[in-house]
Amino acid sequence: KQEVTQIPAALSVPEGENLVLNCSFTDSAIYNLQWFRQDPGKGLTSLLLIQSSQREQTSGRLNASLDKSSGRSTLYIAASQPGDSATYLCAVWGNMLTFGGGTRLMVKP
Amino acid sequence: KAGVTQTPRYLIKTRGQQVTLSCSPISGHRSVSWYQQTPGQGLQFLFEYFSETQRNKGNFPGRFSGRQFSNSRSEMNVSTLELGDSALYLCASSLVQSFSYEQYFGPGTRLTVT
Predict the structure, then answer these.
(1) Contact check, Cβ <8 Å, A97/B42
(2) Measured between alpha carbons, how far is residue B103 from residues A20, A49, A93, B49, B69 in Å?
(3) φ, ψ (nearest 5 deg) of residue A29
(4) B103/A34 touch (CB, cutoff 8 Å), yes or no
(5) A92 CB-near residues (< 8 Å, 6+ apart)
(6) Backbone CA torsion sign across A25, A3, B79, B8
């Protein structure tokens, strides 16, 4: 059974800092990995999708990497802003989409 | 292009009742998946529909069921509601059967069971 873990569970940083969110998964037989953002009480917004054959994806200030063999992915956020405050979730596609518990990020002005 | 829409957005039901939630995918998307989100269990996969057929199912009791119509709209039904069914129910759509393609989520339906 696939298990996805995200560390840390919560993070508070001052504005402008670069930060890294971590995601690990137990079964490396995945099709892809997707990072999402969730604002309180809202649905999920897709940030980046990395296919299993890819090593990384970039979108603006976001960069996600994937190391399938070690079962790890990282989401790098450059020059963080207060508007980045949200919960960040990673999810892996095996035979179903399995989510991590999320990292709750607070960026202070 | 309009996003994924879910109705209703909020719902309050009594234990023992049944409820039906609706999801309209992004135009052209043929796959719809449903998820339950609770503070204790996080986000859990319920089931996925593609071309009106259930393709995949998570580990939920038979009280949870769904269907998909020919226009790709999907409904989820929960019978004999329990207090533990209180959750945010999210649906997601993707272009084709989901594992290769990006999932786009709706805003969710917040179900409260009293």
Answers:
(1) no
(2) 23, 9, 11, 13, 19
(3) -80, 75
(4) yes
(5) A2, A4, A25, A30, A32, A33, A34, A98
(6) negative
Q: Which residue has the tokens 């095996």?
A: A94
Task: Name the minimum distance, in Å, from the CA of B8 to any CA of chain A.
Answer: 14
CA distance B10 to chain A (A): 11
Position B76, amino acid: M
The encoded tokens of residue B64 equal: 């949870």
Contacts of B20 (CB under 8 A, 6+ apart): B75, B76, B77
Nearest to A4 by CA among A21, A24, A22, A18: A24
Question: Residues A45-98: pLDDT tens digits?
Answer: 999 999 888 999 999 999 999 999 999 999 999 999 999 999 999 999 887 889
Q: How far apart are CA B114 and CA B103, in angstroms?
A: 32
Interface of B with A in 22-51 (CB under 8 A): 33, 35, 42-45, 48
Structure tokens belonging to residue B54: 């259930």
Q: Which chain A residues are closer than 8 Å to B44 by Cβ?
A: 99
Asked if B110 and B88 count as a contact pair (C-beta separation under 8 A), the reply is: yes
